[in-house]
Each structure stands twice: as C-alpha cells, then as structure tokens.
Amino acid sequence: MTGIQGGNPSYERHHHSWRGIVSCFNRWHHRNLTVAITLAIGIIIAVLLVSLLPQPWSGVVSNASNDSSRAMLTTSEHPEFTGPHKYEALTAWNSLHTELGRSILEDGVVTTGELVKVRKAYNECLSVYGLQAKTITDGNGEAIGESVVPIRGSMSSQQQSAVIDQCRTESDYRWLEPLANAQSAEQSTKESR
Amino acid sequence: MNGKPAAQAAQWMRAHWFRLAIATFTLAATLVEWSVIPPIYPLNFLFSGLSVIAIVLSPFIPRISGWVIIVTVVARLFVLDLSGPNPLWAAYLALAIIGYDSAIPVAVGALLTVTLAECVPVALNTFNALSATWIGMVNYIGMFTLATMGGMSFRWRKQRDKIREQALALERKQWQLDTLQRNTRLASRIHDSASGGLSYIALTAQRELRRIGDDEAHCAERQDWQFVNDQALSVLDEIHHVIDLLEQPQSSDQSQPNDSADSKVQESSANPVMKRAESPVPESSSSSSATSWQWNTLQSAMREANAKLTHLGFTGTIETRGNLPDDCADEALTEAANLLGEITANITRHMSTDAGEYCCVITFSKSAIEIMETNPIAIPDNTAQNDDGNSAGALKPHGSGLSMHRRMIRSLGGELNATAEDGDWILYARIPAQLGSPKSERRAS
After folding, report:
1. Which of A148, A164, B156, B203 has its CA 20 to 30 A from that of B380?
2. How many C-beta atoms lie closer than 10 Å to residue B289's C-beta?
3. Radius of gyration, alpha carbons of chain B
4. Do the beta carbons of residue A150 and residue A130 sit within 8 Å?
5. How many Å apart are CA B236 and CA B196, to the nearest integer?
6. Which residue of B has its CA nearest to A124?
C-alpha cells in the first residue's frame, strides 16, 4: 500500500507535467498560428490594395514593340516661345508625354536643375528594366556623353535599345535634353562674348 | 538590477554574433542598393520593405524571417520591376539561416523553392530572369546551394562541438566517480582497520578508569589510563577527520540524505541498555568449506568481534547459519567481515554494557550473505555513558561507518538497511555471493 501510495504522486506529477507541456505547446502553437494567420491576411490585403496603385513605366516594353505614341494631347493653346530655339521648343511641346515636361517647358527655358528632374524620371524608367544611364566624363570631369548600362535582368541588346528609346520618349528626356543643351550652349556663347 | 538585462543582452550577442554579422552585412548591402536604385512599383516597394524587416528580425526569429524573405523573393519575380535592392542578398541570407536552424529536408525544400522560382522567368524568357540562358542559371543555383550548405555546415560543426563537450563532461564525471569510489574504499579501510581498534583501546581505558576509582593510591595509574584514553580519542578524531576529507567530494551527491539518515538512526540507537552476559564463540556451521581461507577470514572476524565485546562486558550472540557457497566472491566475504567489525565498533562505541543482549546472525545461501543484527535501544533520558560523567572523554559517534559500508554493498549489488523500531535497533545487510561480470573480469585481470 505504501508502495502504491508512494508511486501515485510520482506518476501524477509526471502525468501533470506532461499534460502541462502539451497544453503549453498547444497554447504556444495556437498563439503563433493566430499571429501567422493575422500577418498573412494583413500582407494579402496590403498586396491587393497596393496592386491597385499605378505602376509607372509598365507599358514601356509594349509601347516599344508596337511603336505606339502616347504623347499628350496637342491643342492650339501653347506658350509663346521666343528666341533662336522657339521652333525646337514648339516641336518639343507638341511631343511631350508628361505633365512634368510641360511644366518645365512652359516658360520656354530648360534649366540644369529641371533637366536633372527629367533625367531622374528617365533613370526610373530604365531601372524598372534593369538599366541605368551613366554619364561619361573626360579627364577634367566634364560630361562628354552618356551611356546606358545593364545592371540586372536578361534583356538582349535589341530589347535594351528599344526600351532605352521608349524611356527617352516617355520621360520627355528625348526632347528636353537637346533643348537644354542648346540653350546652355547659347548661354555660354553669350557669356563668352 | 539594471545591469542584468544589459549583461543578458551582451551574452546573447556574444552567443549569436555570427547571425548578427551576416544580417548586418545583408541589411547594409540591401539599404545601399535601395538608396541608389529605389523601388519604382508600389508592390515592389512593399515586398522590398517586408524583406528588409525580415532581415532585421532574422537574428531573433530566424526561421520565420527566412521564410518571409523567401516569400518576398518569389513574389518579386511576379512583379516585373527590376528596380529596388537586389533580392539575392536576402535570398542567400534566408537559405543560410534556414540551413542552420531547420532540418535537412526543410532546408532542401527552401533551396528548391528559391531555385525553381528563379528558373520560371528563365523558362518564360522574361526580362527579369537572373540569366538569359540556363548555363548562366547554373552559377546562381550553385550560389544558392552554397549558401544552404554553409548554414548546414555551421550547424553540423556546432553539433560536433556539443558532442565533444558532452563526451568530455562524461569522461570527467567518470573520472570523478572512479576517484570517489577509490576514496570510499580508502575511507572504509581506514575506518575498519584503525577506528575499531582505537575505540576498543579507549573503551578499555575508560573501563579501567571506572574500575580504579578516585582514591589517592591509584593516582598514577589513573593518570596513565587517562592519558591512554585521551590519546586514543585524539587519534580517533584525526582519523575521522581524514575520512571526512576523503568523502568530501561526495557531500553534494544524492547519497548525502542517506548518510544523514543513517547518522540519525545511529544516534537514536546510542546508549542502549544491555545486560552483562557471556557470549560464546560460535561454532562453524560449514562442513565442506570450513578449511578455506574465506571461511577462516570470517571466523577470525567473528572471533575478534566476540572477544572485544566480551572483554568490554557486552553480552549477546554472533552465529552463522547455512553453508558458505563454494563460488562466493572474495569481495563479498571481505565486506561481510568488515561490516561485522563495524557492527562491533558501533556496539562498543554507542551502547552501554548493562542494557541487554545483542544478537547477530549471519546466514549463507547460494546467492547471498545476509547479516541481521539487533539490540535494544536505551531510554532517551538514560544518556550517561560514563560513571564519572566525563562526556568529553567519551567516544563520539562519527556517523560515516555504516554509510561507507552501505555504498560498498550497493556497489556489490546488495543492500544495507538500519532502522530503529519498537525499541530495537535493527540492521539488515544482504551481500550478493557472486558479483557481476565486470567485477569478476576486473578481479581476474
């Protein structure tokens, strides 16, 4: 009897500890599962909501393949451009694709700071496709040109050329960069005189 | 109190420095790339942000973070946007920590998930593929595999170190156990050989002191016996001190409660009232093995015990029953003889001569030697051992004798129990006659 009485508490203690571990594990498992499900639901909702937001430059490849132009609507109303580059400015105005471009060209002048903004948009377009525009400088640090380098992805050179052209067009870099260079050269000439 | 969390944090950082290092490197690389080429599409921004959060949390919740990173890496393949931080850094980190923290099938599953997902754009020939050709993908698959194997190899190394540490700890414990057993044997030998004899000398001196009385005529003789008594008690104390030192390593192990219980029982049996009577030397009950040295050893121990007790005025019997088995182990018989000496010493040390009779029966069977010893326990108030009341000159119980014998008998596979029931001190010991194979082999070697 003594042996039985002596054995029961040990068994019960062991049994209780085992049940305690199981219940603890269940609680832990249940809590973790709840957290994981909540997080997963939150992430799915966030993904669904975020996917509704606009994805800039997403149509570059398709536009490049079918050569479609998505220039903004041209109307009879446009700024009165003056100076030696007024015709280039007017042509550029009619070819612009973005509100940013039009806001820059509205005064007929493309400053260096404004060109940086356009170049940033151009690079954003390129980065979606794993490309980046890189300025080539001479020994004195003067910009002498520009090249586009692939950093990611697996585009062929033909695809890259098409994407670069389309990004230049759709970011208005194609029209505003030469205009800014021309105006800068003219300004330099005037200052040298 | 404030220093404790800081110390715990420092300890945690020391223990997980490699996790922190690779997570920091991956985070730095990801954030630098993010700052140079920020994600353009909102979905890409979301997945890149989740990936960065998972990298930050990877040292704390590695497995969950690893799988979150893998999910974001796979999800970014479906968002046709190559801007933002390179997902490969996070992918290598995730595969490494999953390889380290998870089982091999899980790690292989993570590796296959990332590899197959990265192969889909190659198969579909989309611009966001890691490589335009399958040959190029081999390099990336190799890198994914290396990252996973790196994590696995660190885990295997940790497991190997842990196994080595466990083996070392086991070896150290075995060495301590061997030392302890050797010390116990030494202590038991010292106790049996010297302690009993000195107790006998001291008790003889005390008996003579009581007999002589306090008259002036025997002053010189009294001083001599007093000197003998004091010297014997002093040396006995020193021997007990040496025994305590030998047993010191065992003070923290589980045998301690038994020792204290044994001491308590010993103390409870002190000062039993015994009657003075003659105790005849028992005759041999064995016929076939009476001439063997084993039987002689036991007989010698019995005679010695009987002579001591009789000389000191104790009465009782020590007798044997049955025949000593032919294949009885030397260790068992030696321990039986030693235990008999300890029982004798306990009787002389703790009991008075005018209380009752002791009774000791040694029973031989084919499998074991059993020793049963009983004697009456004195009334608690009757504590005076010496007629002169000089308690400082009396023998003090040490309390380790039976404990050592209990350990020795247990190591031989037997048992020793001592209890005080119904006014009687009862000791029962069972020593197996044949020992286990390891002991036999050791003895043979």
Report:
1. B203
2. 17
3. 39
4. yes
5. 9
6. B40
Check CB contact of A37 with chain B, cutoff 8 Å: no
- Torsion sign, CA atoms B333, B335, B341, B347: negative
What one-character-per-residue DSSP string does B389-404 give?
--GGGSPPP-S-HHHH
Quick one: which H or E segment has residue B419?
strand B415-421
Q: Residue B401 carries which side chain, given as an amino acid letter?
A: G
Q: How many whole angstroms separate alpha carbon B89 and alpha carbon B63?
A: 17
Question: Which residues are CB-contacts of A172 (< 8 A; sequence separation ≥ 6)?
Answer: A92, A95, A96, A97, A98, A100, A101, A118, A121
Number of helical (H) and strand (E) elements in chain B, helices listed first: 14, 5
d(CA B71, CA B42): 17
C-alpha A56/C-alpha A121 separation (Å) is 10
Contacts of A152 in chain B (CB under 8 A): 82, 86, 128
H or E, element range at A134: strand A131-137
Is-contact B66 B97, C-beta < 8 A? yes
A6 alpha carbon, distance to own chain's centre: 74
User: Which residue is associated with the tokens 């219940």?
Assistant: A23
Contacts (Cβ under 8 Å, ≥6 apart) of B245:
none
Q: Across the strands, what pairs with B431?
A: B369
Cβ distance of A47 and B46 shorter than 8 Å: yes
Which tokens is B116 given? Answer: 């197959």
What is chain A's alpha carbon radius of gyration, rounded to the nearest angstrom? 32
B205: pLDDT strictly greater than 80? yes
Six token digits for residue B333:
């018989």
| Strand stretches in B221-378, DSSP E | 315-321, 357-364, 368-376
Q: Architecture of B172-444 per CATH? A: 2-Layer Sandwich (3.30)
Q: What letter would DSSP give residue B195?
A: I
Q: pLDDT digit string (tens) for B82-113?
A: 999 999 999 999 999 999 999 999 999 999 99
A28 touches chain B (CB under 8 A): no
**Domain residue ranges in chain A:** 1-53, 60-192
Supply the pTM of this predicted model: 0.58
Q: Give the ranges where B312-360 is alpha helix by DSSP (H).
A: 330-350
**Inter-chain residue contact A153 with B82, CB threshold 8 Å:** yes
Whole-number Å distance between alpha carbons of B256 and B315: 33
Which residues make up the CATH 3.30.565.10 domain(s) of chain B?
172-444
Q: In A, residues 113-132, which contact B (CB 8 Å cutoff)? A: 124, 127-130, 132
What's the Cα-to-Cα distance from B157 to each of B160, B161, B168, rounded to whole Å? 5, 6, 16
Q: Work out whether strand B315-321 and strand B357-364 pair parallel, antiparallel, or are unpaired.
A: parallel
- What pLDDT digit, counting tens, does each position of B308-358 carry? 888 778 888 888 888 888 888 888 888 888 888 888 888 777 777 777 888
For helices B42-57 and A2-51, the axis angle rounded to 10 degrees is 150
Distance in angstroms (rounded) separating the CA atoms of residues B93 and A154 = 24
